[in-house]
Amino acid sequence: MAAQQQSKWEGKAIGNLKGPKAEQVWPLFEDFFNFHNWLPTIDTCYQLNNEKDGLIRCCANTVPPSSDGSEAIIKWCHERLLYVDKIERCLSYEALDNNVGIRSYVATFKILSSDDGDESGCKIEWSFVADPVDGLTLECFLGYVDFSLQGMAEKIEKALESSLGDFASLES
Taking the model in full, what pTM does it have? Predict the structure, then answer.
């Protein structure tokens, strides 16, 4: 039986932030090695090199041992920065080597101003194109991206609220 060629997966998730403006959120994304501070499913993110291959980071997460006595597992992915557009507030990267089953994956994050005309709030858009991931469905992968982005939006809101509160207390 001939194997059917699976098409590329494409998807997008949107995270709404109620208070922070796009100009406040963008600097958090512009730092390519800062991802672990915002994405709840990543423990660490650090630069691997700055050579001819471009900027490459390693993002990793430790899955703790289970109650059945299995050992902790470190899941990791090396990712290359493709571009940063400060004017459009977007950043794109691709997955390289990894141990999570990703063969081809390109993601783009955009920080967008709120659509409702209100001065407060913004949106984070996470879009991707990927080869199917073994053991997952597109719906499952989309669910992971959306869940991760909602957690990221929440962490960013809290961090910016905290920093604005600290700044306000300095002024008084």
Answer: 0.85
93-97-101-107 Cα dihedral, nearest 10 degrees: 0
Residues paired with 98 in a beta bridge: 77
The residue-averaged pLDDT of 51-56 equals 80
Residue 26 clears pLDDT 50, i.e. is over it: yes
35-42 contacts at long range (C-beta below 8 A, 24 or more positions apart): 35/59, 37/155, 37/159, 38/152, 38/155, 38/156, 39/148, 39/151, 39/152, 40/148, 40/151, 40/152, 40/155, 41/144, 41/148, 41/151
* pLDDT band per the 50, 70, 90 thresholds, residue 116: low
Q: φ, ψ for residue 51 (rounded to 5)?
A: -100, -160
